[in-house]
Specification:
GO molecular function: pyridoxal phosphate binding; transaminase activity
Shape: globular
Keywords: Aminotransferase, Pyridoxal phosphate, Transferase
Organism: Tetragenococcus koreensis
Strand order of the largest sheet: 2-8-7-6-5-3-4
Enzyme class: transferase
Protein name: Aminotransferase
Order of helices and strands: HEHHEHEHEHEHEEEHHHEEHEEEH
Strand content: 5-15%
Distance between the termini: 57 Å
Amino acid sequence: MADVTQRFNPHLNQIAVSMIRQFDERVSSIPNILKLTLGEPDFNTPEHVKQAGVTAIEQDHSHYTGMTGLPELRKAAADFVQKKYQLSYDFQSEILVTVGVTEGIAASLLSVLEAGDKVLLPSPTFPGYEPIITLAGAQPIYIDTSANDFVLSAETLRESLQKHGDRVKAVVLNYPSNPTGVTYSREEVKAIAEVLKDYPVFVISDEVYSELTYEEQHVSIAEYLREQTILLNGLSKSHAMTGWRLGLIFAPQELTKEIMKTHQYLVTSAATSVQMAAVEALTKGIDDSLVMKEEYRKRRDFVYHELHNLGYDVARPTGAFYIFAKIPEDCIQDSMAFCVDLAEKESLAIIPGAAFGPGGEGYVRISYAASMENLEEAMERLKRYTKNNRS
């Protein structure tokens, strides 16, 4: 019988299952494990949004939509970003509905990249970008931001662009950031845009946590660099709809029509009932995130102060629902070894910083998308572990 096992795309040899998922599964069987691992809101989808989905199913909205998504959803999305972020997109030609932001990432990167291209990735970063870049035959170039409180400066960006030359095809931004919770001020976004406008590169900006900012209003780089920006957003975090899988791409018409080709052959279209629920979320539920955000703010403040008191160095998170903490110097410094030891000794699971690329080793990511009761217990377990395992 012929052996085909060695005939896969060779780029797959450079890809592994996400360390986040691997670690989460590894510790799940530990008795009484308390997990602050995945980026999963602990809130339920708002009731009125759920009912819109139920109604769509009951009314037999079970057929394909157009490849770009329901017109009423694209119109709702255009109105949403106009009201929230002062962005103007034509719903008929500049918006795509995707199966989660994950598909939006894949469709965007696979549309713009070819073999030999380079993509700049400020790091630490969400580990969902590099595998798609690698599959396309391109090369991820990490920019370690750990020395600057995890903020990519305009100066560092310009240096990287100059260093890597014409093969730089794209820059991937993610803010508020997973894993650090850090976001960018208007001045910082504007400075980055001023640098990028001088280079013919795509800016793929993942802003899925845009509704979860705690100090200042979110500023999209598309406000300053519209013609180069492929803006990604969705409902997973803002409306606690991770399992619904609904994402959005906003881009100029010339870019959207090309990305749509890749999107079509990846998924055809998002589920119709989900799209109809998303219309409800973006219209009647336009401010549904506010209640969740206030609760996340309280949790952030609690965990931040607890970590500070334990001697963990933390860049204060201003968005999303993560804290990225530096492991104290008198504890295990290998982040995977630290997290495994913590899970085995105290039944507390947090994510090793090594999962997020250069600049992440020596740190841990804690998701505070959990009840205050669980967070209080988690901090007690971490306090006990830290006290008993210092060298």
